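To the structural biology subgroup,

Please find below the input and predicted structure for Ferric uptake regulation protein, which we are adding to the shared reference set this quarter. The sequence is reproduced verbatim from the submission form. If anyone notices a discrepancy with their own records, reply to this email rather than editing the shared folder directly, so we keep one authoritative version.
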Amino acid sequence: MNDASTAERLDAAAENCARQGGRLTELRRLVLELVLEADRPVGAYELLDQLRLRHAGAAPPTVYRALDFLLAHGLVHKLALQNAFVSCAGGGHHAHPAQLLVCRSCGSVVELEDSGIQSALARAAGLHGFVVGDGALEVPGLCARCAAESVSA
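Predicted structure (tokenized):
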């Protein structure tokens, strides 16, 4: 991600947090910046290692508290299958839980913005008396590039 778009997304995130009554502190902003600049899902301890290069006193609780805040404000998504985090494409403006396509081969993630998927899932689950929660829906598979490579291999 280029510096201008990262800076714009960080500014938009700060405004979004303020509208929700939160504050994007320097450390939270830095953790979000690291997630935004990652070209793949990133784990908490990898974030901690990167954070320590800029903020020597960072400890695991520092990163986890920042990630909890960013999750609560819709700025990142947690990938349970990988125990890693990705930035939210909507920047905290989702009206629905995220649907994430996760490539099993390269780890790339595509976020879908299709409220119909969540509605269909809720209807199907309701037929079994199940109530769908608010978490992200992770769909493992192969991205276009990896699928093409596996066919040609």
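Summary notes: DSSP finds six helices and five strands in the chain. The chain has a mean pLDDT of 90.

Regards,
Lab coordination
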